[in-house]
Amino acid sequence: MTGGILCAGRLYCDVVFTGTPRLPTLGTEVFAEGVSLHAGGGAFITGATLVALGNGAAQFSVLPAAPFDAVVLQALAENGLSSKLCDVAPGGSDPQITVAIPYANDRAFLTRAAGDALPSLAAFDWRSFSHLHIGELSTLEENPKLIERARSAGLSISLDCGWQDAFRPEVRDLIAAVDVFLPNQRELAALRDVGVPEACAEVTVVKHGKKGARARMRSHSEWHHEVSEAVRVIDATGAGDAFNGGFLSAWLKGVQLQDCLRQGNACGAASVQCAGGVGGLASLPQFDTAAPSLH
Fold first, then answer.
1. 138: which of 60, 112, 161, 253 is 20 to 30 A away, CA to CA?
2. How many CB atoms lie within 10 A of CB 240?
3. Does 59 have pLDDT greater than 80?
4. Model pTM score
5. What is the pLDDT of residue 289?
6. End-to-end CA distance of the chain, in Å?
């Protein structure tokens, strides 16, 4: 795994209901056309996308409690992500589960996040990796020493945001310490409301769903925009995380931001065409990432 990518974050079993006529409301019942179980969590979906694009990656997470750990371990193996650094959940833990309901080209989630997101930070040699991707801001808030550990071993760092009902202004310092920050537009707006600058990290990448994405460096005022191609949406779960994998795979090779965005958009579009965050990865095109870098 020397030079590989370490993907840290909460690991879930996603229960995905498809073909719902509407979202549930209090006092009513909604019937879905289909249901399936998938490994979930931003770190996993981004890692699986990175592997699909030819990168080596390892998962660094606490597994969901049994019996859902079996679903997740099988998905890690099938998608080429090493699970050697994952820990089992403590006995008696609630299972980490997300109920995902795709509807009208978007989705809603109901999640139980139980216990610690990550195993001990001292359990392995960080120098075996060249990059750390953190699947959600809340995991970094719980484990702020991730940045120190990664930097001391010479790793670059990327960070997805993930939704929170109330962001704390103090997250500004954590975001500013990473190389690439990848929120969506709604998350970025919520962060601005608590005083986090729009271009806080060295590189900020803002995802706009079906409208594509934009990116800029902290040292430049210019945003680079890339529109996404329209595709049929089956399940938008994990589309942003698949985008992350595509963007980072190119960025780590020193590719221009515009082309990083293009690859991210293509990975997000592939993801939404199947249920679950990684179902569409087999259809990913191969990209030419030989362009010189400006970042």
1. 253
2. 25
3. yes
4. 0.88
5. 45
6. 26
- For residue 271, name the pLDDT band (cuts at 50, 70, 90): confident
- Reading the block at residue 154, the tokens are 């010479």
**Domains of the chain, CATH where assigned:** 4-9+42-92+116-281 (3.40.1190.20)
Least confident of 93-102, 203-212, 214-223: 93-102
Structural tokens at position 232: 């049929």
- Mean pLDDT of the residues in the chain: 90
Question: Hey, what amino acid is at 1?
Answer: M
Residues 6+ apart with CB under 8 A from 234: 18, 102, 272, 273, 274, 275
